[in-house]
Amino acid sequence: MYHHLSLKSVAYAVAAPTLLYAAFLALLTIPYLQNQAIYLHGVNQTGSLDLNVPEQWGFLRNQVTPFHLHTPDGETLHAWHILPLGLYQQHEDRLVQEPSSGLAPNITQRLSFQLLRDDPDALLVLYFHGAGGSLGSGWRPQSYRGLSAGAPDKIHVVAIDYRGYGTSTGSPSEAALLLDAQTLAAWALNDAGIPPSRIVLFGQSIGTAVSLSLAHSLATDDEKDPVLFSGIVVVAPFADVATLTATYRVGQTIPLLGPVARFPRLLTWLNTWIISKWPSNVRLAELIRACQRIPGEGPKYDVTIIHAEDDYDIPWVHSDMLYWYGVNASSPSGIAYGELEKEKADSRVELGDGGWAVISRSASGVLREQIIKYGLHDRIMSYPVVSQAVVRAFGREKI
């Protein structure tokens, strides 16, 4: 009798977590909960800090101007315009004396905006952050400062909170975040008057999918002339959401769909329920093919992919996959994944404890992959390797 009860206890102990996990998977098919899991926009990582007081993150008075952007579908996005330190120092007296009212009701009247708009040599990074938190969360403020380090009197940064993040209105979706990115690009091109040749797109984690989608949409719009930015820098990207589900770890430790990944057919079936696809691999390939069709000499694309080996959230194999899609698209006859890996092993630049880098050049542009040994998923954003990539993307190694 006791033996029978013991077996039943073991059976219950095994069945209970299995049923709970099955229920968890079922919940993820519900669009609302799926969005929460993918975008984590309900996670507040800044506590009671006021996003309209950037000095709380160590910025100088009026070095950052908070302002609003309005999307075509009626949402309001919260944004920061961050002045590079060298430029700030040149105009410090005027900036300090300027009234600081938190959120700028009209950013065009602020000195910071005028310094961007009126300088024919000003450079601009459009920043698309990862899932969770807001534009003031984690390593993002340090990242803004790092991005301008390569040209501290020229490189401005404008970052947005997508809809549903921070104080921005609305709820995220794949189409909605692309519209948010297009709204920011339209502001940069039209309101600030910065040509695309002086704009670099930067994305981290899910922001890599947003930045590549933006570049793809503006380069392949049949109704308008293609818009080609100076460069794109993506850090800790993923190939697409379907591939990400098999590898993503919550809190760097818990594999979200790790148990299911052992059963490919089941994983494939579950992926049919995914609403936000974010096929960065396909969009990068299509972007490169579109650039090859655009007439004229000179490079049409400049893409740098950066990942850390110790990224426990998104494994760096995703960068390998993304790089292969790009190289395959740029090769007239294509190239197999395994063949490219062999070529990379022979041609890559070894950087010791700094990792390694490879580069693929075509008549239409340049694609780079740089894998560093240390940097985790978020800390890497503030590293010099990213600052260097941004300067390179502007095509100005020595600005």
From TrEMBL:
Keyword Magnesium attributed: no
PANTHER family: ALPHA/BETA HYDROLASE DOMAIN-CONTAINING PROTEIN, PROTEIN ABHD13
Transmembrane segments: 12-33
Domain AB hydrolase-1: 125-285
Organism: Apiospora rasikravindrae
Keyword terms: Membrane, Transmembrane, Transmembrane helix
Name by which UniProt lists this protein: AB hydrolase-1 domain-containing protein
The keyword Metal-binding belongs to this UniProt entry's keyword annotation: no
